[in-house]
Amino acid sequence: MTVVEDRRSRRTRGALRDALVSLVLERGYAAVTVEDIVAAADVGRATFYTHFKDKEALYDHVVSSVLQDLKGRLDEVLAPEDAGFTGEPVAEVFRHASEQPDAYRMILRGEGDGRGLRAFEDAWSATAFETFTARVKANAVRPRVDLQVLARAWVGEQMAVLLWWLDAPEPRPATDQVVETLVELSRRGRFWATGFDPDGR
Questions:
Q1: What sign has the CA pseudo-torsion 115, 121, 124, 125?
Q2: What are 44-96's pLDDT values in tens digits?
Q3: Ordered structural domains, the chain, with CATH
Q4: Cα–Cα distance between 42 and 40 in angstroms, integer?
Q5: Fewer beta carbons below 10 Å: N end or C end of the chain?
């Protein structure tokens, strides 16, 4: 494939991706057809099928692209195991979501029978579990909660807040403010967050 063909292919895939995301947010995944997508992307049906088998394949491409890009960015900001919880990975997720908010909305709202949401949750939870496990070993501490449960709970919390933040009316809360709140919640827990003192009062 020549450079020109490669660029054209990327532009076409990008147009189809943007069309799918926009239409899904507007109509819902089940109501969108390949005909709708090619019309919105201004490409022919034959061109669509050159790149994707069907609507489901295009949807899966969008989800995998988001996840792959996010994983690369998280790998760059994950701190050493003995550094403690810096909050930087959470901030990176919010930054990434702010750059492609509609794709995140589509995934986090559970469009596509929820499989994108499950893929996102599974991938993020796996990363969280690996990070928590490495941190526990590096600091020679004993977890009080099953780390698999902890990872799932932590990720579910982040995803819920992220979708709320993306859907918030402008001007939405500042990213730094939301991330700092999540960091404090992770460090101190809900007991502290609701105003109780460590001794239970």
A1: negative
A2: 999 999 999 999 999 999 999 999 999 898 888 876 655 556 778 889 999 99
A3: 1-52 (1.10.10.60), 56-191 (1.10.357.10)
A4: 5
A5: C
Of the candidates 100, 123, 86, the one whose C-alpha atom is nearest the C-alpha of residue 17 is 100
Q: Which two tokens stand for residue 115?
A: 């499989």
Residue 58 near residue 52 (C-beta atoms within 8 A):
yes
Give how far Cα 21 sits from Cα of 76, 95, 112, 144, Å.
Answer: 27, 19, 11, 41
Percentage above 90 pLDDT, the chain:
62
| Mean pLDDT confidence for 20-49 | 96
- The Cα–Cα gap between 132 and 126 comes to 10
Q: Which residues make Cβ contacts (< 8 Å) with residue 138, sequence separation at least 6?
A: 80, 81, 82
For 107, the token pair is 């995934």
